[in-house]
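ok so for the tutorial part 2 we go from a plain amino acid sequence to predicted structure tokens. step 1 is just haveing the sequence, like this:
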Amino acid sequence: METDQLLVIGFIAIFSAASGYFKFLKPSGAFAAFFTGLFIWAGFGLRGLLLMGAFFITSSLLSRYKSKRKEHLGELHEKGSARDWAQVAANGGTAALAGLANFIAPDPVWLMVLAISIASANADTWASELGVLSKQQPVSIKSFKRVPSGTSGAVSGYGTLASAAGSLVIALIAGYMLSVEPVWVILVFIFGLAGSLLDTLLGAYLQAGFQCVRCHLPTEKLTHCSIPTKQISGFSRINNDAVNFISGLTVAIMGMALYNIL
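step 2 — the prediction. this is what the tokens look like for a chain of 262 residues:
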């Protein structure tokens, strides 16, 4: 193995470890991030790694942005801002698989899978982290009623704009750094935004929802007020991580199909 390759692997390891040290990732998340970065670098080189880095850095910083106003989300969400291996796999797993596939059987289509999956993850993350700061409560796409900020399956104008911005940032970076053609920059943006919207739809109808039997708060947690919660919607095996992975993979496959057709 050449020296420059060892340096890149060392950089990925240090970056992953530092992310764990600064509490952006849990230890299992740092471990998963190392292999995610390794596969992306193997398939797409440093430019692919930097595209993934743009998602990780912005999403990590946004998770800390106005954290005091987001403290109530701890009562609603199953997990905190420090991501574990499942959250890393949910957001970066499709990109990692694209990197591995491009390493084994190089094809331009895998670049589209990489860009679309990261655009989708970024769109959803920006919507989640910024949408909860909206002064108005979001509307559930299932009941069309106002629900608490941070509720899965709910949308707001502010969150939708944040989602579009997150997808656009990745599409533009992909166009600049990876020489993606202008028409595909637009399509990456559209598919990325579609992935975020699909995530909302799956969150409303498939993701498991629970309710505290003591205080009656809707939540993603299996326990609340120190007692087990009651499932009131969705499928028990489908949590937010599963929804994130399914939505990102779905739009990436759709993009791959369109790329092969065109």
